[in-house]
Amino acid sequence: MNTCSGYISPEYANYGLYSLKSDVFSFGVLVLEIVSGYRNRGFSHPDHHLNLIGHVSAKAMSVLTLSFQ
């Protein structure tokens, strides 16, 4: 099966569990791609090997950590 794995929620990819959250995850990835101008599957950063979702998650965590100090 050829799917767009960059848009599949981790719960569905790992366990085959589908819910409304799966649609929300896919929509969030699409919005993130539109806002950032990068594709999730083709994103690369010179400092790490994370995809676009991992990169944004790491940046968000660092901002939240700094804001609560």
Description:
The chain is an all-alpha fold and 69 residues long. The chain has one domain (5-67). Helix content is 57%, strand content 0%. The protein has 3 helices and no strands. The longest helix has 17 residues, at 20-36. The radius of gyration is 14 Å and the shape is globular. The N and C termini lie far apart (47 Å).
Topology:
Blueprint: H1 10-15, H2 20-36, H3 52-67
SSE order, one letter for each helix or strand? HHH
The end-to-end span amounts to 47 Å
In total, the number of domains comes to: 1
**Average pLDDT taken over every residue:** 77
Q: Describe the sheet with the most strands.
A: none
Q: Give the overall shape.
A: globular
Structure keywords:
single chain; 69 residues; mainly alpha; 3 helices; 57% helix
Compact summary:
With 69 residues, this protein is mostly helical.
